[in-house]
Amino acid sequence: MSRTEREFDAFANEYDQLLRDPIRERFVGADSQFFHVRKYDLIRDFYRRRATDTKSLALLDIGCGRGELLKLLRDDFSEAAGCDLSQEMLEGGRVAEAGVQVRLQTSPTNIPFEDRRFDLVTAVCVYHHVALHDRDALTAEVRRVLKPGGVFALIEHNPYNPATRIIVSRTPVDADAILLRPITARRLVERQGFRALDHRYFLYFPKGVYDRCKSLERVLGRVPLGGQYALFCSFSGGQEKLLALSGRRSLMGSGRLPIAAQGSIPPHNGPY
């Protein structure tokens, strides 16, 4: 059993309490679903802007936890599935009872689904829990389960937002967190042959303000101050051939540090 699996199994019964933070609570008010709904809106808006009907598409949410996002999205896709390292989190959210197929991950770098099965794979606030040396392997797994031309949506905390960093630093479930700068996320997916389609920041305003200023948040989407960011990218079969031809460059031979080490922010650095 991995450290992450042990920790989230232990957190499952009191997960909501462990997430409590005065800044977070003032941001969402009485609506605990606000963060999940914002991600739902972001994903739906991505496909609307591309005039794409998702009813024929298959969705996978990795690190789905208790399945809050999956439950929101399931009726918008032909298939909705999820996986997580923690059996306790999956059972606690009763995800399977919500009509969603769920499978337990056996390791942080294993996605327990077949090759080229999904049109959209989401990873929401997952990568900051993944060890630096496992991030490329997990991203390669995402590529494996995506259909050619499928979309990977990587959503993460924005380390440029001071409030986000404060909340993460004092939240027990994020004790192991190593936040990813947006450039780190982009380079991570590019190393596995993904091509960025869209990159935007969100969660600028608390719920009460957002409900009245939704259009303003869309305008601000390129300003790197939102509480979180989303990177949408795609992978095609042709890119897979290019990756095989290019091979892997030796870090020793290139004289460069790993990109993750260049761009990640340790959880207890600076204001942490």
Approximately how much helix is present in the residues? 25-40%
As an assembly, this protein is single chain
Weakly predicted, low-confidence segments: 10-15, 248-272
Q: Major sheet, described briefly? A: 7 strands, mixed
**What is the residue-mean pLDDT, rounded to a whole number?**
83
The CATH topology: Rossmann fold
* Rg from Cα: 18 Å
Strand content: 15-25%
Strand arrangement within the widest β-sheet reads 3-2-1-4-5-8-7
Q: Could you describe the 3D structure shown?
A:
With 272 residues, the protein is α/β, with parallel strands linked by helices. The chain has a single domain, classed as 3-Layer(aba) Sandwich (Rossmann fold). Helices cover 39% and strands 20% of the residues. The chain is built from 14 helices and 9 strands. It has helices at 3-11, 15-18, 22-28, 34-49, 68-73, 87-92, 135-145, 162-169, 182-191, 207-210, 214-219, 237-246, 251-254, 259-263; strands at 58-62, 79-84, 101-104, 118-124, 146-157, 179-180, 195-202, 228-235, 264-265. A 7-stranded mixed beta sheet has the order 3-2-1-4-5-8-7, with helices on both faces. It has a two-stranded antiparallel ribbon with strand order 6-9. The longest helix has 16 residues, at 34-49. The radius of gyration is 18 Å and the shape is globular. The chain starts with a helix and ends in a 7-residue tail after the last strand. Residues 10-15 and 248-272 have low confidence and may be disordered.
